[in-house]
Amino acid sequence: MGTSVEFDPYMGRKAFDETKEGVKGLVDAKITEVPRIFHAPKDALTDKKPSVPDLAIPTIDFASVHVDTASREAVVEKVKHAAEKWGFFQVINHGIPLNVLKEIEDGGRRFHEEDPEVKKRYFSRDLANKNFFYNSNFDLYGSSPSVNWRDTFACYIAPDPPTPGELPVTCRDAMFEYSKHVMSLGGLLFELLSEALGLEPDILKSKECLKSLLMLCHYYPPCPQPDLTLGTSKHSDNSFLTILLQDNIGGLQILHQDSWVDVAPLPGALIINIGDFLQLITNGKFISVEHRVLANRQGPRISVASFFSSSKRANSTVYGPMKELVSEENPPKYRDITIKEYTDGYTEKGLDGTSYLMNFRI
């Protein structure tokens, strides 16, 4: 019997982290095998092919939302159905110009493909004190069973926008322009979701759902052994609402009635999904659905996720099911929490394939 060196996942993760070059660095080194720290548990890699091949999340056309009351009500009805039954939908004619979408996608790619020494200046795991930072796997040292095949840069856009000097020149203009449009679209979405609850259009805005915006740009390099790992493990979002732009490569799947459903790229569309906080304050009426991203031999895949929440700043606001939505017949399903309490626990837990929201069920 030859002596085998015991595999130490912590040391493997630390060595990977200390390169500050992320998964892109591994691919640039022309590795042909996925390192052990990226090997996902077998059960996380089953059923990659959707069991219902042609099932698709709803697509909603916003072209008529400002035309007249009847047109807006028809859109609200579709949003309501999607938020209650799917937790996800795609939006077309959302008002963000195609060139703005293309530029943020290209800007994200430019940053991630920048000279490693330039990128390293932005490398950080201090998520609370920087407005812009880059790393690979926010939960690298958490309890997630494996490392995901992606790199990310993150930027806190609101309520305290970064100065131009804090952002890399490769994507600075694109981020300012895109985030301006995202804030505007977010405002409209929260109005439509408020109306879908049968409430006044500004009710969710009044609860500061629109106040904070965190933008992430994920970079998923081509993977030599995509059957061994995941781009992003199964999770739901710790946000009120997420707006996602994905390129044309695909790989995003959502869990719908216990089956994985592919979210096929639709040029010019944006993907909207309900986050954990919105499920909590709507008392489970709107659903925050688990989703994941498969690794792919093709690539790089670029996606830009904009999270409406308020996780960075200390915020003493306590959130629970909205009083307008609870009654004797429909008592609160969740206990009250602060965003910080939720986010700290969510971050510590990492993407381990379980729902953190379940810890707050009454």
Structure description:
This protein is of the alpha+beta class and 362 residues long. It is 28% helix and 19% strand. It has 9 helices and 14 strands. The strands form 3 sheets. Strands 1-2-10-7-12-5-4-3 form an 8-stranded mixed sheet. The longest helix is centred in the middle third of the chain and has 25 residues, at 172-196. It is globular. The termini are far apart.
Q: What's the average pLDDT? A: 93
Helix content: 25-40%
Characterize the overall form.
globular
Uncertain runs with pLDDT below 50, 5 residues or more? none
Structural class: alpha+beta
The first-level CATH class name: Mainly Beta
Fourth CATH level, the homologous superfamily: B-lactam Antibiotic, Isopenicillin N Synthase, Chain
| CATH architectural arrangement | Sandwich
The total beta strand count reads: 14
Report the major sheet.
8 strands, mixed
Quick rundown:
This protein has 362 residues and is α+β, with helices and mostly antiparallel strands.
Sum up the structure in keywords.
362 residues, four-stranded antiparallel β-sheet, 19% strand, iron, metal ion binding
Describe the protein's topology:
Blueprint: H1 9-18, H2 22-28, E1 59-61, H3 69-85, E2 88-92, H4 98-112, H5 116-120, E3 132-135, E4 151-158, H6 172-196, H7 203-206, E5 213-220, E6 230-235, E7 241-246, E8 252-256, E9 259-262, E10 270-274, H8 276-281, E11 291-294, E12 301-308, E13 318-319, E14 337-338, H9 339-349
Parallel strand pairs: 1-2
Antiparallel strand pairs: 2-10, 3-4, 4-5, 5-12, 6-11, 7-10, 7-12, 8-9, 8-11, 13-14
Helix pairs in contact: 3-6, 4-6
Protein name: Fe2OG dioxygenase domain-containing protein
Cofactor: Fe cation
Pfam family, one: DIOX_N
